[in-house]
Design a protein that fits this description.
heterodimer; A: 158 residues; mainly beta; five-stranded mixed beta barrel; 6% helix; 30% strand; elongated; B: five-stranded mixed β-barrel
Chain lengths: 158, 208
Amino acid sequence: MATADHQTERAFQKQPTVFLNKKSILQGKSKKNLRYVRNVGLGFKTPREAIDGTYIDKKCPFTGNVSIRGRILTGRVLKTKMMRTIVIRREYLHYVRKYCRFEKRHKNLSVHLSPCFRDVEIGDIVTVGECRPLSKTVKYNVLKVTKTSGSKKGFAKV
Amino acid sequence: MCISRDKWHKRRATGGRMAVLRKKRKYELGRPPAHTKLGAKRIHTVRTMGGNKKYRALRQDHGNFSWGSEAITRKTRVIDVVYNPSNNEFVRTKTLVKSSIIQIDSTPFRQWYEAHYATPLGRKKGVKLSEEDEAVLNKVRSKKTQKKYDERKKQAKVEQALEEQFATGRVLAKISSRPGQCGRVDGYILEGKELEFYSRKLKSKKAK
């Protein structure tokens, strides 16, 4: 298990609420890894990877400094090319009164993806919760990922 | 005040330009950075929004640093700026900013440690101690107080890397206050994993 791999930046990555230098730790009788994990509420389970993992992400809803409040939305994953954030696509129907019919519309949303969600592929359904602005376009945070049915049988691209 | 922190000069998320609707407002203002240098204390106060004050430290040399594992804090002199994760320029010009790694004078911490645990810290082997140091370390005590000190000695171990720094008289610390905002250079002594991380960075820099 790589424990030091998350120190990839020039500054030492740590959770600010965890004090790493207590005497009992320094003198060697080490407990299990000190980690701050929180329950985001609203019935969302915090993933095992968030509790056991060693990543440091201040924007993670489970191990970082963001609170989830406001709207909860769902969407389909469109792109996963950004670092720790993905683009989801939310589709909806708009009613046109003159023709008494619907038309399909969609909106893209940039959403922060915590490292505790591994193997998120495009096409997965994702539940996101509103949080404070994390960047110019990111105001939502991924809370739950449900894989698309049928993806289990498919072979991953090598 | 030509620096402004507005949003309407930026493009939209779609890439489109935003029409300029108004002039710059005072509440969007920004001020030039402090670039606090190492030197005799010089602090200017700034009147901010709402009539509040900010203390812009232009030069500082002392700070309040805490030794986390022992839970004590002492005022010490800042000696040198050694590493900055954001900008190497700050190391070269000896600029004090939050999260800079600096060297501080270790004597107040050593004095506290020797008085509290009655064991020497960072002393060279074989060098005779001066009279006052002898008095502190080997004070004649009553049985009861001696017992107290013996109990303390059980917890007195300091990690190897830190002890070596005490021997040289300079300890690595990290600034955790913002000198350009509060006028103070406060921080904490590096220990454990953090110390290991930054020592490695320093060594690789030196090796270059």
